[in-house]
Design goal:
The chain is α+β, with helices and mostly antiparallel strands. It has 3 domains: 98 residues, Nuclear Transport Factor 2, Chain: A; 129 residues, Nuclear Transport Factor 2, Chain: A; 112 residues, Glucose Permease (Domain IIA). Helices cover 20% and strands 34% of the residues. The strands form 5 sheets. Strands 13, 16, 17, 18, 19, 20, 21, 22, 23 and 24 form a 10-stranded antiparallel beta sheet that branches. Strand 5 and strand 6 form a beta hairpin.
Length: 437
């Protein structure tokens, strides 16, 4: 019995020793397959929560504006850069750098009314200025960093171009139809300029209709302007007119089905499409002097400040004020044609005798200076030194499609004709618009 008891004791002791050895072996074995940090996630769960709850940076104009004040607005008339910063603190060293900033980097004098700006500042008691942003155009913006030292950055936003179509039916006039369709002035002017010498847009017929394919430029999904007109069909007095863009190596021009250029040497209208308030006449009752006399010009009614454009390339002959004409500009285009633009509120900067101007360039702004009862442009036209009706003068067309490009032109014409034909007109005579991206 004593031997049996001793044997049981040895068995228990051996089992305990085996369990102890197994524990140390297994612990060493599993430790070889673990790495630092394997169990830290449990201990550092609070850190993960902190990361998830961190405030995401808000980026405007390339600057993280979290915890900053962003004041946006538009430059007012006669407002200076210093006026925009008067409620904010700028360090003396940065102010000195602003005064010494070269104009080629940023010219404060060119900050224009109605342009967008933004002022970014700290939320301290002094409202310390961090940055000033000026947008000369929807595409470009300039950032002046003001916090520690002055640095200037110029940025360009990405422009995307989408293709759209629009159709319309004339209910009374093009002006009212365009207004009903909410079509931009820029698109209207480009459309009118293409057919300016083929169609009298002041005397359209009810039921005339049109289709356009054009490009629209966007920045951040917001329209900023019109690109190229890609094709036009215009139905006037039941006659169909096509316009096809084609480049013969000198830039885009517009041609009819037979390859004849639709462009003349001069534009027909010197301002954006608008109402003609008085036509050329040899015997008109003058509203100011109250007598009948010749009115050797065409009056376009327009709001004060409407840009006036040169109808063609040329050289400025006169740019000054006179009692009758008010502020006016006179331009010689070639040996045959000269044009005049009267009653301006202001002559555009740089318009002095001898200045070369390009077709479409702004030369002044609509006003009522001189002998005028209200804001309008009096447009005058000389041919070989004699004043003639600007809207009835016969101008030579630009050159047609060259024979060597005819195959390419035919391909463009065929494609655009089909595309225009596939755009449906609305079944009613009411103004309609369909824009497809």
């Amino acid at each position: 019995m004593k031997l049996a008891s001793q044997k049981k004791i040895y068995i228990v002791i051996g089992a305990l020793l085996l369990l102890s050895v197994s524990f140390f072996v297994l612990n060493a074995f599993t430790s070889g397959f673990t790495f630092p940090g394997d169990y830290e996630a449990v201990a550092d769960s609070s850190k993960v929560a902190d990361v998830l709850n961190m405030e995401r940076p808000i980026i405007k104009y390339g600057i993280a504006v979290n915890g900053l004040e962003v004041k946006e607005g538009y430059v007012k008339r006669d407002q200076l850069f210093a006026d925009l910063l008067e409620e904010n603190f700028v360090t003396p060293s940065v102010l000195q750098q602003l005064h010494l900033l070269p104009k080629k980097i940023f010219d404060f004098r060119k900050m224009a009314a109605s342009k967008k700006y933004a002022l970014i500042s700290q939320l301290d008691s002094l409202k310390t200025a961090v940055a000033f942003v000026y947008e000369p155009s929807p595409v470009e913006y300039v950032v002046l960093h003001l916090k520690d030292s002055l640095t200037v950055e110029t940025h360009q936003r990405e422009i995307t171009t989408v293709e759209k179509t629009v159709t319309g039916t004339i209910a009374s006039s093009l002006y009212e139809t365009i207004d009903a369709l909410n079509i931009s002035n820029e698109l209207t002017n480009k459309f009118v300029d293409v057919f300016g010498w083929q169609v009298d847009f002041q005397h359209l017929q009810k039921g005339d209709r049109f289709k356009l394919i054009y490009e629209e430029n966007l920045v951040d999904d917001q329209p900023i302007g019109i690109g190229k007109i890609l094709g036009i069909y215009f139905e006037h007095f039941n006659n169909g007119y096509y316009a096809f863009p084609f480049d013969q190596g000198e830039g885009i021009d517009y041609f009819d089905e037979d390859g004849n250029s639709l462009r003349k040497a001069l534009l027909r209208y010197p301002i954006e499409f608008t109402r003609i308030s008085s036509r050329y006449s040899l015997n008109r009752f003058h509203p100011v002097v109250k007598i009948f006399r010749a009115h050797l010009g065409t009056d376009f009614a327009a709001a004060v400040g409407t840009p006036i454009r040169s109808v063609g390339d040329g050289i400025v002959l006169e740019a000054r004020y006179s009692a009758n004409n008010g502020n006016y500009v006179k331009i010689r285009h070639n040996a045959t044609y000269t044009t005049g633009y009267l009653h301006m509120s202001k002559i555009a900067s740089g318009m002095v005798p001898g200045t070369r101007v390009k077709q479409g360039q702004t030369i002044g702004y609509v006003g009522s200076t001189g002998l005028a009862t209200g804001p309008h442009l009096c447009y005058r036209f000389w041919r070989n030194g004699a004043q003639v009706d600007a809207l009835r003068v016969q101008l030579p067309p630009s050159k047609p499609v060259d024979k060597k490009y005819w195959t390419e032109f035919e391909a463009v014409k065929k494609e655009l004709t089909l595309r225009l034909q596939l755009i449906p007109f609305n079944a009613t005579s009411s103004p309609t618009v369909a824009m497809l991206q």
